[in-house]
Design brief:
Number of strands: 0
Structural class: mainly alpha
Order of helices and strands: HHHHHHHHHHHHHHHH
């Protein structure tokens, strides 16, 4: 009796490849961008900002993060094939062409810009440097010893845009929140860089994990501490009371847990720490929302 081999698996559809390209199944990236943006929106509005701005900033965050992934994968395609975690990304593997990836990224950015056009002139003006930093970040890894700082700027641009959309101006408060958020990004993206440190050293990629060396864990904890301290100080005048205090305490508890995960510098621990950071952002956002609701 002759046996028949199972048919070979069918190649993935273009849609599934595009969804993989924009990390659709891994929402941690856009959640890390979303929570500080929405927190700033709530602070700027003194509470619920209205459905229009909520929709614009939520959808815009997801779209721009997705567009950034397209640019990043094109810029890093020759490096990613040498890194265990990224070798099978669609552009690196050749499943999606450079032209396709850039076209998808441009389309997503264009839709996001269309959303910004429904706000006001100051927000539109702030969206232009936000786009420029998003495009510049993937290339910073070749020249900047701590490119995570460039990512921190990119991931903080939603904060001044939120204030501009609500008030038509960007106060000093927004810049303090940007500083705190920049430190948060430095913390969690250094954890991310610690996962790939061995591979990055081989291919000559610059990262904060390499630059900080044996001081990496201490620096990550210091970045977290500055993040929490700056946001606590900046939000103190709003009188958000117990909800914010409880949220900040919960964030500090999560920071302690992060230390337990990364102190041995294992790939698994560092990656797990990175992927759990969006809960830190959500916790702070929830405290802000509850604080304004109960004030």
């Amino acid at each position: 009796m002759q046996s028949t081999a199972p048919p070979p698996p069918s190649p993935p559809s273009r849609l599934s490849l595009y969804l993989d390209l924009i990390r659709w199944s891994r929402p941690a990236g856009w959640l890390l961008l979303l929570w500080p943006t929405l927190s700033a929106l709530w602070v700027a509005a003194g509470g619920f900002p209205g459905w229009h701005l909520l929709a614009v900033f939520t959808l815009g965050t997801v779209l721009m993060r997705s567009a950034g992934c397209c640019v990043n994968d094109v810029a890093d395609r020759d490096f990613d094939r040498h890194v265990k975690r990224t070798a099978r990304r669609p552009v690196t593997s050749g499943a999606v062409s450079v032209r396709e990836a850039l076209g998808l990224g441009a389309a997503l950015a264009l839709v996001s810009f269309g959303l910004v056009l429904t706000t006001n002139a100051p927000t539109i003006a702030w969206s232009l440097p936000a786009l420029a930093v998003t495009i510049a970040y993937p290339f910073a890894k070749r020249f900047v010893s701590m490119p995570q700082a460039v990512l921190g700027v990119a991931f903080s641009m939603g904060i001044p845009m939120a204030f501009a959309a609500v008030d038509g101006r960007v106060p000093w408060l927004a810049l303090w929140l940007v500083l705190g958020n920049l430190c948060w990004v430095l913390a969690y993206d250094t954890e991310y860089a610690m996962v790939d440190r061995d591979d990055d050293l081989k291919i000559g990629m610059k990262t904060s994990a390499i630059t900080l060396g044996r001081h990496d864990v201490a620096a990550v904890m210091a970045f977290y501490a500055v993040f929490v301290a700056v946001w606590a100080w900046a939000l103190a005048p709003f009188g958000l009371g117990a909800p914010l205090a409880v949220a900040l305490a919960a964030v500090l508890a999560q920071v302690a847990w992060q230390w337990r995960l990364i102190r041995q510098r294992s790939r698994e621990g560092c990656f797990r720490a990175f992927t759990q950071n969006h809960w830190m952002g959500f916790t702070l956002f929830a405290g802000i929302v509850a604080g304004f609701a109960l004030r």
